[in-house]
Structures are given as structure tokens and as C-alpha cells.
Design brief:
This protein has one domain: NAD(P)-binding Rossmann-like Domain (Rossmann fold), CATH 3.40.50. Helices cover 48% and strands 15% of the residues. The protein is built from 9 helices and 9 strands.
């Protein structure tokens, strides 16, 4: 395989760090962004000039465009752009504040949009490239206590599905990566929690128990090979699950939706009217 140049957001930990290591280990070059670039010092020491650390808060649109330009200028091209930066906002829908929902969308949705917009001119010009949009099983299903997070990932899913159709003619591929639960700090130090309303205290406890039943946390390092196989594929999928649980969750969810839609189809069809 010809060596690839990657641009990855959120590389200080979790998936971003693991995928940067996977790329670097096989001889690719990586522009790695983080809000605290000192977290990347060990990677720079290990991989030298193959690694370009860039300080970046993805909620800053101008900084996103500048970071992508810097990476392209430094390496001369971009082959894989990974929108990985994000965090989990916990809280029942009634508990979420305006500041919390705006911050969640600014990072998980708009940050990915700005980086995508910044990269597209370079990818169009070279006639190739692969955008990896890190979504979640929570981008196609939804659970209690994470409504704001789901809002950000469902929006990213719709945006990216449209994008894939818009850029296919330029030789650009788009894949939504939809992981299961993994041992990252998504639900730990990176997470944010809304103030709990007393009425929801029992629901919060039920949500914690339900999440523990849904997922046996996976090892982020175990995803390295899957992502390398994805970017090396000549015909990558629009969507890729990571982990064992998502397929079962998605199957049950979509079968339920189809059953409901079919049951109510007479009502839906009657709402069409005569067209006159």
C-alpha cells in the first residue's frame, strides 16, 4: 500500500490516539490535533517527522481551517481525514441546559463540519480522499440520559450521508464509524453531566444499569486493524460498526421501526390526499 497522510482530531486519547499509532506504525504520516499538544509529546519522540502535532479546539472554525491548511502545506496532501474529537453529554432531556446543548453541538457536530469543509477543497483538487466521521451506535439508536449526545450524532449521520452523495463524483469517500461501548474516557473524564432533577433520580439509576447490560466495554486498541482495513479498501462502506453489540441493537431497533411504519401505513397513505 502507498503511504497515506492522515489528519486526525482528538488524538490525545481514545480512538484518535490508537488510530494515529496504527497509521504511524505502518509508515504513514499523521497530522494529529489536540487541545493540549503536550499529550502528544511521546508520539513525536517515537515517530519524529512522520508526526505533526497541532493545537486545536475544533469549536474554533477559523482554527480548524488553519490547522487543515497547515497539515496540507506540511505534508503536501491529505488522504484520510478523521473527525474524532467529541465528548458525551449526560442528562435527561428536561435537565439539559442551553449552554450544555450548544456546547455539545459545537463540538460533536459543528467541529466535524468545519474540519470537513476545510479539507474538501484539497481532496477535490487531488481527486481522492477518505473522510471518517466518528459517530456511534448512538447515531442510529437512542438511549435514556444521553439525548443531547444523540442529537449531535444523529445530525452528523444525516450530514455525512448527504455529503457522501455530493462528493462521490470527485473521488472522495465518506464513512461513518459507529462504535459500541469502549474503554475510553467518553463516559469518564471527558464526559459532562447535567444537574440532576430529583424527579429523575430513579431513571438515572435505571439508565446506569441498562448501559452496563448493553455493553461489555471493548479495547480501543483492538480497533486499529479494522480502521486500517477500512481506509485501504477500494470500496469502503458508508457505515461501519465497531464492536459486537451494535448489529443486534440496530437490528432490533430497525425491525421495530419497520413494523410500526407498516402498521400505520394505511393512515400514512390516506394522508396523501387526492393530489388535486
Amino acid at each position: 500500500m502507498t503511504a497515506k497522510t492522515w489528519f486526525i482530531t482528538g488524538t490525545s486519547r481514545g480512538f484518535g490516539r490508537e488510530w494515529a499509532i496504527a497509521a504511524l506504525d505502518r509508515g504513514d504520516t499523521v497530522a494529529a490535533t489536540a487541545r493540549d499538544v503536550s499529550s502528544l509529546d511521546d508520539l513525536v519522540a517515537t515517530y519524529g517527522e512522520a508526526m505533526l502535532p497541532i493545537r486545536l479546539d475544533v469549536t474554533d472554525r477559523d482554527a480548524d481551517f488553519a490547522a487543515v491548511r497547515q497539515a496540507h502545506h506540511h505534508f503536501g496532501r491529505l488522504d484520510v481525514v478523521v473527525n474524532n474529537a467529541g465528548y458525551g453529554q449526560f442528562g435527561m432531556v428536561e435537565e439539559i441546559s442551553e449552554a450544555e446543548i450548544r456546547a455539545q453541538l459545537e463540538t460533536n457536530l459543528l467541529g466535524a463540519l468545519w474540519v470537513t469543509q476545510a479539507a474538501l477543497p484539497f481532496l477535490r483538487e487531488q481527486g481522492s480522499g477518505h473522510l471518517l466521521q466518528v459517530s456511534s451506535i448512538g447515531g442510529i439508536s437512542a438511549f435514556v440520559n444521553t439525548g443531547a449526545y444523540h442529537a449531535s450524532k444523529w445530525a452528523l449521520e444525516g450530514l455525512s450521508q448527504s455529503l457522501a452523495q455530493e462528493v462521490a463524483g470527485f473521488g472522495i469517500k465518506v464513512t461513518l464509524i459507529e462504535p459500541s461501548g469502549y474503554s475510553t474516557d467518553w463516559a469518564g473524564p471527558s464526559a459532562r453531566h447535567a444537574t440532576v432533577l430529583p424527579a429523575y433520580e430513579p431513571v438515572h439509576e435505571q439508565a446506569v444499569q441498562a448501559r452496563a447490560r448493553r455493553f461489555t466495554p471493548g479495547d480501543p486498541a483492538a480497533t486499529r486493524d479494522a480502521v486500517l482495513r477500512l481506509v485501504d479498501s477500494p470500496h469502503p462502506p458508508l457505515r461501519l460498526f465497531l464492536g459486537e453489540a451494535p448489529l443486534g441493537i440496530a437490528t432490533a431497533d430497525y425491525e421495530s421501526r419497520l413494523a410500526s411504519w407498516r402498521a400505520w401505513q394505511p393512515v400514512a397513505a390516506a394522508a396523501q390526499g387526492s393530489g388535486n
